């Protein structure tokens, strides 16, 4: 039996040594529990030691903790920790977003290598109606991709061609295609940015034409208007924006239902393509003269046309549209 020892406050008891031969597992102990001096009847020798140490600890003198100091130390550390965590998270989030964007761009450059010939084949008739071959002077193409439109352009008539293509995995092939078409490197300027961020990268009011095919669907909806304003700003008065785009079908139509269903897949795997982008309405909201040259209805309706910047602020309709946009 264990003899209870009362601890004195200022004199801790000496540590208790286990008896030779005693083990921590009672089941295989060569010494019967009743024979071990530290054993509790029916219990384990280890438990007896623990119980005795607890009794010793209870007798130790305790210091009073300076609570206000401890609390303020805790609050300051928590604030610093939270601040550090928030900053590290923002950095990590930005790094992760850049990685995802790079992977998505690389994937889409590969995918478009496979898809572009077929898409171009199906739309080349519409492009011919747009008269890309007649574009001359200082010209800018938005989202040229791998250069599907290069064979339609006249390098002798275009004095300078600016290409606004954010996907850097496409620019080497785009450059090679344009040079093979007959453009000199000195005729070309590449801007590797989304067009809605590139307003300052090309001179305002200086372009004789801006054109793009199947690009505006990939501009985030919240930035579509800014993107179109950017194009508007680049054009000299009287110059056209020439476009071919797939657009959202009316709500409730079968085509729109399909567009809604496939939208997440197209957005994730198709370089940010939005099958429900209301590009036609957005184009018509700007104060230029819009001429829809053609329209092909289908599961993915396509429109092609021109939007010409007015020569003066008082050109028909432009002032009205401009004021309407402001309010
Ligand atoms: C479907 S591809 C069309 C490429 C080419 N215009 C054609 O018809 O083959 C869309 C192109 O637009 C580019 N793009 C996507 N978002 C853009 C943006 N915000 N500004 C400019 N180009 C963009 C993509 O990198 C891609 O090259």
TrEMBL record:
Domain of life: Eukaryota
Region named Disordered: 1-58
Keyword Iron-sulfur listed: no
Transmembrane helix in keyword set: yes
Keywords, comma-separated and alphabetical: Membrane, Transmembrane, Transmembrane helix
UniProt-listed InterPro entries: SAM-dependent_MTases_sf, Thiol_S-MT
SUPFAM superfamilies cross-referenced by the UniProt entry: S-adenosyl-L-methionine-dependent methyltransferases
TM segment ranges: 69-88
Coiled coil feature spans: none
PANTHER family: METHYLTRANSFERASE LIKE 7A (PTHR45036:SF1), METHYLTRANSFERASE LIKE 7B (PTHR45036)
Name of the molecule in the record: Uncharacterized protein
Taxonomic classification: Eukaryota, Fungi, Fungi incertae sedis, Chytridiomycota, Chytridiomycota incertae sedis
